[in-house]
Amino acid sequence: MMSGISRRKKRKLKSEINVVPYIDVMLVLLIIFMVTAPLLTLSFEVELPTSHAKALESKQDPVVVSVLSDGQLSLKLPDAKAPERMAAETLQAQLAAMASQDKSLRVIVAADRSVTYEKVVAAMDVIKAARIEKVGLATDAR
């Protein structure tokens, strides 16, 4: 009677962990990180001067471009007593004419704390369009 009854074999339990799914997940994450890592580097190193730096000595006084709180630009020449308000196009044309006469022309950008960064960058773009290479930012000494 025993011959007709099928016997069940006892199966041993495996004490191993199947790591294939974990390797698949790891490779997918690796690919995701490799693709997204270059996109996350949006910054660049900038060496900022300390506030205790001394002003550079120069034989000539710089031209000062002021950015007012309403976004208006003004130009103060070294021999002028007061700055003159002007449009960006006029300022660019005047700076370009000055730069064509003097290649070592220095321009200082001055702005109040309340002026937005966007307006200061717009002023820097006007100066760059005039092909002036020596540009600085005015600050108060501490």
Key structural traits:
alpha/beta; 142 residues; Nucleotidyltransferase, domain 5; 5-stranded mixed β-sheet
Q: What would your notes on this structure say?
A:
- Helix content is 31%, strand content 15%.
- The protein is α/β, with parallel strands linked by helices and 142 residues long.
- It has a domain at 63-137: Nucleotidyltransferase, domain 5 (2-Layer Sandwich).
- The chain starts with 19 loop residues before the first helix and ends in a 5-residue tail after the last strand.
- Residues 46-50 have low confidence and may be disordered.
- It holds the Pfam family ExbD.
Give a brief rundown of this model.
The chain is α/β, with parallel strands linked by helices. The chain is built from three helices and five strands.
Main sheet strand line-up? 3-2-1-4-5
Give the topology string: H per helix, E per strand.
HEEEHEHE
Biggest beta sheet attributes: 5 strands, mixed
> CATH topology of the domain at 63-137, what is it called?
Nucleotidyltransferase, domain 5
Name the overall outline. rod-shaped
State the secondary-structure class.
Answer: alpha/beta
The CATH architecture assignment of the domain at 63-137 turns out to be 2-Layer Sandwich
Write the layout of secondary structure elements.
Elements: H1 20-36, E1 63-67, E2 73-76, E3 84-86, H2 88-101, E4 106-111, H3 117-129, E5 134-137
Parallel strand pairs: 1-4, 4-5
Antiparallel strand pairs: 1-2, 2-3
